[in-house]
Amino acid sequence: MIKTLILIIFILLKFLIIIVPALISVAYLTLIERKILSAIQIRRGPNVVGYGLLQPLADGLKFFLKETIIPIKSNKGLFFFAPLLFLVLSFCSWSVIPFDSISLVNSNLGILFYLALSSLSVYGIILAGWSSNSRYAFLGSLRSAAQMISYEVVLGLLILTVAALSQSFNLRELVVNQNLCFYFFALVPIFLIYFVAVLAETNRTPFDLPEAEAELVAGYNVEYASIPFAFYFIAEYCNMILWSDLTIYLFFGGWGNFYFFKLIAMLILFSWVRATLPRYRWDQLMVLTWRIFLPLVLCSVTLLFLVINFSLSTEIYYASQIPFELEQQFRNMYMIYGADTNTDYETLLAIYELLLKHRGLI
C-alpha cells in the first residue's frame, strides 16, 4: 500500500514538473509574441503596468473568471472532454524531450512516441467540431484534421530521415551525434520543408485555415469560452514550443551550445512569419503537400538512404580487406581488453567477427 502511494506521488510530481514550466512558458510566450507583432506593425504592445510583465497573468485570470457557455444542442460530455484530451496529449508529449541528463521518459523509441502523440491530438479537434453541433466548428475541425494528417506524412518522413542519419530513435543519442556538426548544415533543403510542415502541423500562419476568421468565425473552437477555450489556447502554444524544441534537437544540437538562445530564436521565427505572410487558400495548401512536398521528400529520403547504404558498404569492404597478419593482433586485443573492460567492447567484437567471417571460420 505504501509503495503504491509513493508511486502515485512520484507520477504526480513528474506531471507537475511538466505542467508548471509549460504553463509559465505559454504565458510569457504570448507576451513575447505580442511585443514582436507590435514592433513589426510599428505600434506599442502591452507596456503600461510593469512594462506588460503582468499582462499574461491578467489574461489567464480573465479566462478563468468568464462564464462557461454550453450550446443547447451540443453533446455535453464530448464538448468538455475534447479540450481536456487535446491539453493532456500536449503535456504528455513533453515527457520524451530530454535535457542533458534529465528526462522523464528515456525511451529508445522517443521520436516515434512523440509522433504517435501528435497524431492523436487530431481527435481532440474532431470531437470539438462534432460535439459543438455548429457548422462553422465542424468545418474547421474537418479542415484541421485533413491538414494535420496530410502534413504528418511529410513530417514523419523527414524526421525518420534524420533518425536514419543518426541511426537511432532516441533523442539523447541524436543530440550526442551532433557534437561535431549540426545536421542543419548537411540537411538545409530538408530543414526548409520541415519548417513549413511544422507551421501547418501547428495551425500557424500562413496555414491557420482551421481558424480562418473571415470564413469560419473562429473555426473548431468557436463555441468555446472560459476554461475549455483556455485549454485549447494553452495546448496550441505548448505544441508550438514543443515543435520548436524538437527542431533544435533534430537539426541544431539539442541542449548544448546556447540552447535557450536557439529556442527563443525559433519561437521568434514563428511570430515573424505570423506578422509577415498572408493566409493560404485551402486548395493551395493541399497542392503544396501532396504535389510538391511529398514527391520532394520521397526523393530526398531515397537519396539519403542510398548514400548511407553506400557509406556502410564501403566501410565493410575496407574492413574486409585487412591483411591476414593483423588478424592475430585483433584477436589478442579482444582477448586482453574485451574480457576485462567495457572499453570498445562492441567495436572489438564486431571487428573480430568480421575477420572470422572473412577467413571463412564462421
Give me some keywords for this one:
362 residues; mainly alpha; 2 domains; 13 helices; globular
Walk me through the topology.
Elements: H1 2-40, H2 55-65, H3 76-93, H4 110-131, H5 135-166, H6 171-176, H7 188-201, H8 213-216, H9 226-251, H10 259-276, H11 282-320, H12 325-338, H13 345-358
Helix pairs in contact: 1-2, 1-9, 1-10, 2-9, 3-4, 3-9, 4-5, 5-7, 5-11, 9-10, 12-13
Describe what you observe in this structure:
The protein is mostly helical and 362 residues long. It has 2 domains: 66-309, no CATH class; 322-358, no CATH class. It has helices at residues 2-40, 55-65, 76-93, 110-131, 135-166, 171-176, 188-201, 213-216, 226-251, 259-276, 282-320, 325-338, 345-358. The longest helix is centred in the first third of the chain and has 39 residues, at 2-40. It is globular. 31% of the residues are buried. The model has no long low-confidence stretch (mean pLDDT 79).
The level of helicity is over 70%
- Oligomer state equals single chain
Gyration radius over CA: 25 Å
Strand content: under 5%
Task: Give the total of beta strands.
Answer: 0
**Structural class label:** mainly alpha
- How many domains make up the 3D coordinates? 2
CA-CA gap between termini: 54 Å
Mean pLDDT across every amino acid position: 79
Shape: globular
Poorly predicted regions = none
Element-level helix/strand string: HHHHHHHHHHHHH
How many helices in DSSP terms?
13
- Major sheet description: none
